[in-house]
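Open question from group meeting: does this chain pack into something compact, or does most of it stay loose? Before anyone orders reagents, we agreed to write out a predicted structure and look at it together. Recording both the input and the output here so the notebook holds the full record.
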Amino acid sequence: MKKLILLFAGAALVINLNANRDPGMTMTKATKAVQVDGVVDGNDPWGITWIDLTYNKTANTTSAMTGKFQITYDDSCLYLVVDINDPTQGDTAAANTWERDCIEVFVGMDTNTYGSIKYKAGDFQFRNGWATEYPWRFEVGVGDPAPKTGARLADFKANSLNYTAQVDDPTEYITEWSLSWRTMLKDTVEWVGNEFIGFDVQIADNTTNAASGRSQQTYWWNNEDQAWHNITLFGIVKLATPITWYVKPEPPGFKNVTLNKFSVVPQGKLLVIKNASSNRISIYNIAGQRIKQVNLTGNTVYVDLDPGLYLVNDGSNTAKVVIK
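Structure tokens returned:
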């Protein structure tokens, strides 16, 4: 068995997905850190249950490759192991790295800003290819087209907690990943609830080992092969327990504000609205959908709302508020 290891490090991680979507899975917290060496053994917290990658792209012309994965986390990192059986694995001459034998991982942190399909700060596509030796082409993507190297890859290389390793057999290769939460949260606007991430994993096979010879792609969540520029195709993974050190930042503009005399202040689950310029108040969710309209019959109105971010408009003023 040949051990192949690549050390890399630090960048940003975020995703713009809707935490109200049903999670595709709940990820349990690891009892210890993964020893990232490409070997699944007692040094790791991996269990005996694997998740099969069976969601094939409809245009596949071969089916010999199979794969499975496990995912876990601790307060420092997101961990992933992918086991691929591929009788035709090889380091092809294809100019496009996505046409080679490879693994692609999609991760995103800000699940509150779902709505646009476009990659934004914190939406990432990672690619790691099979190779006869490392280092190879580990790539970090930040949008359409993605992935691309450069500053984001340099960010990952700056943090030693970001690490990937591969062990290669003639018909099988295993890769382990460690991705630092702090690196991935570098550009995050807000990690909503500190308990959801966007996620998918894809494996690809170039059966002929020739340029443009990719013949099979298999996924966990979505097989449209468009997640490289459409974040709404990411699945949702729920963290069983939140990261202990994370404190949700207050995004710019999302403050409990008073504009002129117009006052919007949360009290528990109640929104207290005073001194509006009209007697009709409209309340919108962060996606811009009006969810309530209330009449102000006196100087003050109380509105019962679920936790979240809201826009409150009185016809002349708009306040952005947080109900916790």
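Observations to bring back to the group:
Residues 263 and 297 are 16 Å apart (CA to CA).
Residues 1-20, 145-150, 250-260 have pLDDT under 50 and may be disordered.
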